[in-house]
Design brief:
230 residues, mainly alpha, Substrate Binding Domain Of Dnak, Chain:A, Domain 2, two-stranded antiparallel ribbon, binds iron/sulfur cluster, anaerobic carbon-monoxide dehydrogenase activity
């Protein structure tokens, strides 16, 4: 196929011309082989969360309007969407956890390949987590910061420190009003898996709300940690 019909990006067009000439398979080829894609899947109305399924809803209204457990199209689509959010938030945030572990090892070692190169940034980030800076060695501050960010993952009470330390106050007020201020990074992901299990959450608005909490825990928690400590 003409590369210009496959992508509007000039670099991608050039790459696609090259892969066509050399016979290399790309995601574009595989996408075309998948067409026509499953209509139920595209609408998000197919569910295989439990072994009673797979269940699917007839989008035209003639066939089944609920899965075996009673889940409607709204419930199934919301469950599918928020489980995708859980997967993405887990991938970003677990990367942040690994960065935090490496940071802790670097902070406590004189022979680690990694080191704190930007001391000013270290102090700026530590201040956001309310860590004492004055009169302290870099290693001490870095050790406390590593502990503080790692505690954000499994926090059991309250909300994320970073969710109060980084976003503009007006944005935090919106989250408070909507009840979506993230509580801890791992918790928001686990709660998605809990609420979307058969027989648990069925209100699609409530499910989406939990998805929003996980998005915020990812963006202002796990991903932020990965960026700030890198
Ligand atoms: S959770 Fe409900 S809709 Fe999904 S597969 Fe099980 S019975 Fe079907």
């Amino acid at each position: 196929m003409d590369p210009k019909k496959r992508s509007s990006d000039k670099a991608s067009q050039e790459m696609l011309k090259h892969t066509d000439e050399t016979g290399l398979e790309t995601a574009w080829d595989r996408f075309e082989q998948q067409e026509p894609q499953c209509g139920f899947g595209k609408l998000g109305v197919c569910c295989r969360i439990c072994t009673m399924g797979p269940c699917r809803i007839d989008p035209f209204g003639d066939g089944p309007q609920a899965g075996i457990c009673g889940a409607t199209a709204d419930t199934i689509a919301a469950r599918n969407l928020v489980r995708m959010i859980a997967g993405g938030a887990a991938a970003h945030s677990d990367h942040g956890r690994d960065v935090a572990h490496t940071f802790k090892m670097a902070a406590g070692s004189d022979s680690c390949d990694y080191m704190v190169k930007d001391e000013l940034k270290l102090r700026e980030v530590a201040a956001r987590y309310d860590i004492k800076i004055e009169g302290r060695e870099t290693k001490e501050i870095a050790g406390d910061l590593a502990d503080a960010v790692m505690a954000e993952f499994g926090k059991q009470e309250g909300t994320l420190v970073s969710a109060a330390a980084y976003p503009p106050p007006a944005r935090q007020k919106v989250w408070e009003k909507l009840g979506v201020t993230p509580r801890s990074i791992d918790r928001e992901i686990v709660e998605i898996m809990h609420r979307t299990h058969i027989g648990v959450g069925s209100d699609y608005k409530n499910l989406i709300k939990q998805g929003l909490r996980a998005c915020l825990a990812d963006g202002w928690g796990g991903s932020l940690i990965a960026t700030e400590l890198s």
